[in-house]
Write a structure and sequence with these properties.
The complex is a heterodimer of chains A (113) and B (115). Chain A has no helices and eleven strands. Chain A has strands at residues 4-7, 10-13, 19-25, 31-37, 43-51, 54-57, 64-66, 76-78, 87-94, 102-104, 108-112. In chain B, strands 2, 5, 6, 10, 11 and 12 form a six-stranded mixed sheet that branches. Chain B has a four-stranded antiparallel sheet with strand order 3-9-8-7, with no helix packed on it. Classes of the chains: A mainly beta (113), B mainly beta (115).
């Protein structure tokens, strides 16, 4: 079945540690996205990538980094520079077409201890 | 910059009744796309319905329909015959292609369907 997978589902991190969230898709989508979801704030864009080896900062990129070495994969690293990393993180992808729908992964809940 | 506003943080509706969730947006563009997404307690985001701005006809998907008022920049979602499984967060989203596909989401409306 085609879809987007994110791992792990739950992640705990100590302060000062970097952590990487995985996002993989087998939908052959060109564009991939990372969002952060906090209560009452909807989805805020962290980074996005339209093609392999290229990505752009979203609205809240500070303290995060990404890579896009393969079309299927778009990992997000939450660095120690991110002041308040505890949140729910969603990965999404889009196929450029007349539909332009975003498909979402199941999300990763990151908690900083 | 485009913005999306959902002015109803929480709503409730009796099972089998109809409810309307509101969404307004701000843009100077003429061609764009609008979406409603549902996020149930599992937190998996699911597309409910989409609307292309160039289409005058309101989109419909079974019990879900929209009232798209382009001049007023309004995009409300109507859920008919509400079911317990409709209980979820609903997000309105705007997308305009400008060389990249970038989506802007509202803050969401938490809908509870009461038995």
């Amino acid at each position: 079945d085609g879809g987007i997978t994110q791992s792990p589902k739950y992640l705990f991190r100590k302060e000062g540690q970097n952590v990487t969230l995985s996002c993989e898709q087998n939908l052959n989508h060109d564009a991939m996205y990372w969002y952060r979801q906090d209560p009452g704030q909807g989805l805020r864009l962290i980074y996005y990538s339209q093609i392999v080896n290229d990505f752009q900062k979203g609205d809240i990129a500070e303290g995060y980094s990404v890579s896009r070495e393969k079309k299927e994969s778009f990992p997000l690293t939450v660095t120690s520079a991110q002041k308040n990393p505890t949140a729910f993180y969603l990965c999404a992808s889009t196929l450029a077409s007349s539909h332009n729908e975003q498909f979402f992964g199941p999300g990763t809940r990151l908690t900083v201890l | 910059a485009q913005t999306v506003t959902q002015s109803q943080p929480e709503m409730s509706v009796q099972e089998a009744e109809t409810v309307t969730l509101s969404c307004t947006y701000d843009t100077s563009e003429n061609n764009y796309y609008l979406f409603w997404y549902k996020q149930p307690p599992s937190r998996q985001m699911i597309l409910v319905i989409r609307q292309e701005a160039y289409k005058q006809q309101n989109a419909t998907e079974n019990r879900f329909s929209v009232n798209f008022q382009k001049a007023a920049k309004s995009f409300s979602l109507k859920i008919s015959d509400s079911q317990l499984g409709d209980t979820a967060m609903y997000f309105c989203a705007f997308m305009k292609f400008t060389g990249t596909y970038k989506y802007i989401f509202g803050t969401g409306t938490r809908l509870k369907v009461l038995a």
